[in-house]
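Hello forum,

I keep getting stuck at the same step: I have a sequence, I want structure tokens, and every attempt I make locally crashes halfway through. Rather than fight my setup again tonight, could one of you with a working pipeline run this one for me? It's a single chain of 327 residues.
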Amino acid sequence: MAVTIREVASAAGVSVSTVSRAFTAPDQVQPKTRQRILEAAARLGYSPNPAARSLRGGGTGTLGLIVPDIANPFFPPIVKAMQARARRLGYTVLVADSDEREADELETIAAVSKRVDGLVLWASTLTEDRLRDLAAQMPLVVVNRHVPGIAEVRISLSAGIAQAVEHLRAYGHRRCAFVNASRTELSRGKSIHESFEALDMSLVELGPYEPRFETGVHAASLVAAHEATAVIAHNDLVALGVLHQMANLGVSVPGQVSVIGIDDTLLASVSTPSLTTIRIDPEEIATRAGDLLIDVIGGRTDPAASPFVEIGSRLILRASTGPAPTH
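Reply #2:
Ran it on my machine without issues. Output:
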């Protein structure tokens, strides 16, 4: 097992951030303290992150973006917008896919971190300790994941979800299903449950599954078993799977079941029927994530304050929702 920065900090009797500064900004550390850190690192066989060493030489001019699934239509507009923003600020963007697996994410980080000045990790599957170790070694921003002390882009779905639940209630829906497709992003499910409870509506949760089209196909047959008249899916991709399978089962949408997605991808507007969804602005996310990462790289944030920016959401009404069926 590779020696971590935490082990060096413990051996030298200093904080993790002091060890990080000893390698990335040595002039900010007292000479005696730095010498003690270097001796501890040599004794333990610790090798600092290559990207951290590159920062001392002026950086690579490249930002890293690791997303869970590049095939999800939600991510290409974000990649494009982040590239445009980075280009205006004198950077390029290196994009990689973690395939929503911890081992793959670790391997991808190890490869990408050698070539970038900092990383944006989207919905990371890593433990908080691993993320803190990484943040101590190089500039890091997380999206859809909260870890105290790490810069964060927070996507608030509360407004959009509240609008969606109010919309369903106004249409007479009282028993609905939530297709959960995440084991790590808990805030989405929490907001959905709270919104249904606030309006005294019944909600059954299906999953958690993986956030893929096939998940929606699988969940569609369970909706009828639970006698739900409406479905809120984890994202548009899952919702499109629900729409597809409902058509195969001869279930009318929205005549018998209403369906709502989350993201507002291009496919949501061209599906049959077009998908009612909760919009998250990809350009705003990309811009704010890129700006925040550059601030972290430049030392313009205070990790102790857990810097974050928040992105809002809103309901986009289309043809996949309608009045609840009367039996």
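The chain is about 45% helix and 15% strand. If your local run keeps crashing, start a new thread with the error log.
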